[in-house]
Design a protein that fits this description.
Blueprint: E1 2-7, E2 11-16, E3 22-26, E4 35-38, E5 40-45, E6 52-56, E7 59-64, E8 72-73, E9 79-82, E10 87-90, E11 101-102, E12 115-116, E13 127-128, H1 136-139, H2 146-155
Parallel strand pairs: 8-11
Antiparallel strand pairs: 1-2, 2-3, 4-10, 5-7, 6-7, 9-10, 12-13
Length: about 160
Amino acid sequence: MEIELKVHEFASVFKNENTNQCLLRSRKVFLENDVLCLFNSQKTLSEPTYLTIQTAKNQHILLNPSFLQYINHSCNPNVFFNIETSQLICLKPIAIAEEITFFYPSTEWEMIQPFDCFCQSENCLHAIKGAKFISSTILQKYRTSNFILSKSFSIN
């Protein structure tokens, strides 16, 4: 069972009562390439945390608006954090009440808290550790930040 915690312009934060995990659900219909919102950094850190997005080597941001931290991972994501334009971009149509998800390795080279993924998509990678641990063949199927793109080409 989910309870709605907070309503924002385009999405609501929900909490799963069984897992205590928060998530973001869309309040609007979005089409591919729509901009859900703009974002910026409320703080820039040299080290990653569980809540940061990597923007460059040794540069990680805490998101503003902060409710974007509740966008969970999926191996079949429906949004992308465009670091260069500071836009949250829709990758495929999103329905009202659909969970908003992104591919964590699209911005994270090496994750501070790797985890096992249970998104159940047919493309599920299962172990999510960061882009560093994904072959370039698989990584190129995803939209990634320019930082991740440059790093993945420099090692392959």
